[in-house]
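The following block was generated as part of the benchmark described in Methods. Ligand: zinc ion.
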Amino acid sequence: MSVAVAPDLSAEGLFLVEEWACAEAARAYARWGLKVFPLAPDAKVPIAGSRGFLDATDDPARLAAWWAATPSANLAIATGASDLVVVDVDPRKGGADTLAFLVQQHGGDFLQTPTALTGGGGQHLYYRRPAGLRLPSGVDRLGPGLDVRGDGGYAVAPPSTVATRRYHWEFGYGLDEHPLAALPAWMGDLLAVPPVDEPAPSPRVAFASPDAVPAGTLRGPALAAYATKQRFLEGVAPRLGLPTTALGRAFRCVLPGHDEDRPSAALYRNRAGNIVYVDFHAPDPALKVLALAEVYAAQRWGKVERLSGQQYALWTLRLLVEAGLVAPAPVPLPPLPPGARPAVVKVYNGLRLLFGCRWLHTPGAPAPFSWRFGAAWCGPGQRHVGEAMGALLKAGVIHRQAKVGGLSLFLPGPGKDGARSP
Ligand SMILES: [Zn+2]
């Protein structure tokens, strides 16, 4: 809230910006080289007849004329024209949670910059805009409730008033009180758009042929490395139903049962450089940050779960194969029995995919299979999976190699003893 400060504490007088009228603040901002323009009284929109940020200026005569015509006009700073980027935190849209997540990921140093408090409980963080980067304005651009004002945008500035509430600088964090921080590099990475003369490669061209991966090589670091690649994200996004591949941009959660009208999820890089799915409304905080393979498995299971190492590898391999990034290992699976029922066909195809993925990791290894896992992996319900597995075992398409607890391990073919029932 506003703190009473003796007028002689600041030579510039901006300490007291909240005591000023917008006309005086406009002159001061302009003196510092910022480009400003008037907004309609008590509103966030440009004054009637104005072209908004396109008219922004630091010319004192122009400013005097505007505020002479409309003394109660609000004040805006044109962000792009002023070489500023403003991050707008809207707590009503989940912005406070998103900000807390970003502090957890990157540390809180980025909060040390001039900050305006909006009338509605939000805050505007001001940054120096890096030269040579295109930084378009956008809603939910850094996650749910975190809008960005950059090129082609503006920020309502103190001491504007909207709905009787006054914008003011956070105490100690006025533009004249605190140095303007450079936009953090990680934020620039999330926001930047490549220059127009360097178009992003078209995914369709880049992914035309799957990687020829020798069986047994997609494990450990080689497999984990995929999680860091934008190419992996571009490839798997359609399978996951992700509406965007832009990191940081909020969208409606695609997890099963998570029906929300508001954008509540976003993709980021975690500290290890992996692309992760962040579910800001996750009922269980332990399941807030998920690997893309976990998102996929959740959609197939119908339930969000943390995957074990082996499960994680299997679902990642499946994503890679289904996205066309990697060719599955060839599997010598005997032909389907003639006249097989649809559930049997589904399980048969699912097993081919399972071995094809498993063998990219460990060639010739048996595949673990429970009815529950089979239902998620292959499609039909658990009862159908049980029946189908029975039919495939009987026909000698697969055999049980071992049983460990409730989990059976299977291999293709009839096995040493020939076909046998489960
Ligand atoms: Zn969700």
